[in-house]
Write a structure and sequence with these properties.
alpha/beta; five-stranded parallel beta sheet; about 140 residues; single chain; Rossmann fold
């Protein structure tokens, strides 16, 4: 049985999901789509993604805030997030990293770059269902 890495694509533009789906076709990934940051956060326990591709510029809650919220949750803090952005200034890219993103890539999306970045983030990580829970030291003292 093949274990496919689960990717959650968060973007308010459905066409962008179609582009990513096309570029990652014939790869060993299960793709899921969420049209907003709020929806993405709410489906994390159900989808259990191994990687999140997150658009920066979205209405209501932008990708930076979504990233901060996800990384603040202990059970999702180790899940890699790649920010996908049309922003290109060094300050904007630094903001992505400061928000907790593990990587970023620009739009328009380049197929070779997308595959390489997704592969590098999923290759070393076991699927979410196989990852150990974060270590929490016991409050009991001996």
């Amino acid at each position: 049985m093949i274990n496919f890495s689960k990717l959650l694509v968060v973007d308010d533009e459905p066409d962008n999901f179609d582009v990513i789906e096309t570029l990652l076709s014939n790869q060993d990934y299960e793709l899921y789509y969420s049209a907003s940051g709020e929806d993405a956060i709410s489906v994390l326990p159900i989808m259990q993604p191994d990687l999140i591709l997150l658009d920066v510029m979205m209405p209501v809650m932008n990708g930076l805030e979504v990233c901060r919220r996800i990384k603040a949750m202990p059970e999702w803090a180790t899940t890699p997030i790649i920010m996908v952005t049309a922003l290109s200034s060094k300050e904007s890219l630094a903001e992505c990293l400061a928000a907790g993103a593990d990587d970023f890539m620009g739009k328009p999306i380049n197929a070779l770059e997308l595959r390489a970045r997704v592969h590098s983030m999923t290759y070393t990580m076991p699927p979410m269902a196989q990852r150990p829970l974060p270590f929490c030291p016991s409050s009991n003292r001996i």
